[in-house]
Amino acid sequence: MVQPEERTALYRLYDASKHLLYVGISRDPEVRWEQHARQKYWWPAVASRTVEWCESRREAERAEAQAIARERPRYNESNRQGAGWNAPAPARDQQSAQDARAVEALVCSIRDGTFPPWSLLPPRKALAERYGLPQAAIDSALWHLMAKPTKALDLLSKYIVVTGPEEFPSGIHRRFGAVYALALLHFGDRPFTAQELVDRTRIGKTTVAGELRRWRDSGLADVHGEPRRGPGAPFTLRVTDAADAGACARS
Questions:
Q1: Is the C or the N end of the chain the one with fewer CB within 10 Å?
Q2: Could you please report the per-residue DSSP string of 204-218?
Q3: Residue 11, SS3?
Q4: Most distant CA atoms of the chain, gap in Å
Q5: Taking a C-beta distance cutoff of 8 angstroms, is the pair 74, 136 a contact?
Q6: What is the spatial distance between Cα 233 and Cα 248, in angstroms, rounded to a whole number?
Q7: What's the pLDDT tens digit per position in 186-235?
Q8: Would you give the DSSP letter of residue 6?
Q9: What DSSP state is assigned to residue 16?
Q10: Which of the 8 DSSP states describes residue 9?
Q11: Interval 21-39 mean pLDDT
């Protein structure tokens, strides 16, 4: 007996301005979105989503192809040519030049220490304003610099960070979060304050303060002195308790 095909979701992801970012299909969209959150540098731009259920995967694939061709989502790069996304040559040339300028600008900022190893990049909008380029060019440059063999950037949870010569402890990242892993890379088992972590990683003060409280409460870090002592209180990570086998802190 032939089994009926499983229902498949057609989903659309939008930014805060209701611009369509991505169209995809999945039998379990929640799981698929978790994958996107780990793998797609543009995921932090997603502000809303819609889901339509199709009775079969084949039906969903047809609907997906039609949606990509008609609605032109920004990040369905692999489907552009098949969907007839052939822009006029002058537009392509102009976009290519802007993309190249964005790559060059970011690489220069990384090399001159403006964005040091294992620090967060500013938001995409801020980068576009900094370099006087369209945000689409910044997006293209980020994609390029996260791909091999360049790999100058990496996506860690919701953060885009500059990579360094050290190996990132991916097991720590998955278990305890990117902020903890970055703190481990920068400080190891040495004491540090909230402000030092902010200065080294460029993570916002509010996020750092919240993470430090979570680490203290969950036993991932020790605070020296009274917890109410303020932002100057030094913390020490419990590296031996947190690190996976084979992972070690880098100075």
A1: N
A2: -HHHHHHHHHHHHHH
A3: strand
A4: 70
A5: yes
A6: 24
A7: 998 899 999 999 999 999 899 999 999 899 888 888 887 654 555 578 88
A8: P
A9: T
A10: E
A11: 89
Distance, CA of 92 to CA of 125 (rounded, Å): 22
Task: Label the pairing between strands 20-26 and 8-14.
Answer: antiparallel
**0.85 cut: is pTM over it?**
no
Are 12 and 47 in contact by the 8 Å Cβ rule? The answer is no
Residue-wise pLDDT for 74-109, tens only, equals 888 644 443 333 333 334 455 678 888 898 999 999
Q: How many Cα atoms within 13 Å fall on the side-chain side of residue 95?
A: 11
CA dihedral 47, 180, 234, 245 (to 10 degrees): 170
As a whole number of angstroms, the distance between CA 102 and CA 95 comes to 10
Question: Going edge to edge, which strands form the sheet with 8-14?
Answer: 20-26, 8-14, 48-54
Amino acid at 153: L
CB 163 within 8 A of CB 117: yes
DSSP string, the chain: -PPPPPPEEEEEEE-TT--EEEEEEESSHHHHHHHHHHH-TTGGG--EEEEEEESSHHHHHHHHHHHHHHH--TT-GGGTTTTT----HHHHHHHHHHHHHHHHHHHHHHHTTSS-TT-BPPPHHHHHHHHT--HHHHHHHHHHHHSTTT--EEEETTEEEE--SSPP-HHHHHHH-HHHHHHHHHHTTS-B-HHHHHHHH---HHHHHHHHHHHHHHTSEEESS-GGG-TT--EEE-HHHHPPTT-----
CA dist 179 → 48, 161, 173, 174 (Å):
25, 11, 8, 11
